[in-house]
Amino acid sequence: MENISKNRVLQCLAFAGFSIILFLIRLMVIPCFDGGCALMFLSVLLFLTFLAVAGLIFYPMSRAFDAVVTDSNLLAHWTYDPAWYDRILKREYEEHNERNTALLTVIDGMMVLFALFFHHICPGRGI
Hints:
Order of helices and strands: HHH
Number of helices: 3
Number of strands: 0
Helix content: over 70%
């Protein structure tokens, strides 16, 4: 079984390395008064954020997953029928689409109501 958290740790570290590379490029190429200092600050902030996410969230999850999967004292082990699993996934996907469609309809209705309201209040500047 694949440990997805381990991949996330590697992705966070790759993004942290990329942000440090951007920091160094901005340090050497872009002057401070042309926005270089702001971009360097953003790069350092991204670097620290990616390291914090990797170290505080995904690395402990990765270790816990490895401990559960590689432990020889499993409490239970079961497998699912692929047809049953596909049926469950299809049903959950349909429910997810129904919920998102309902949410989209509500948001669109609110947007139309607000647009009409503002068009009524500011008739020369609206739609």
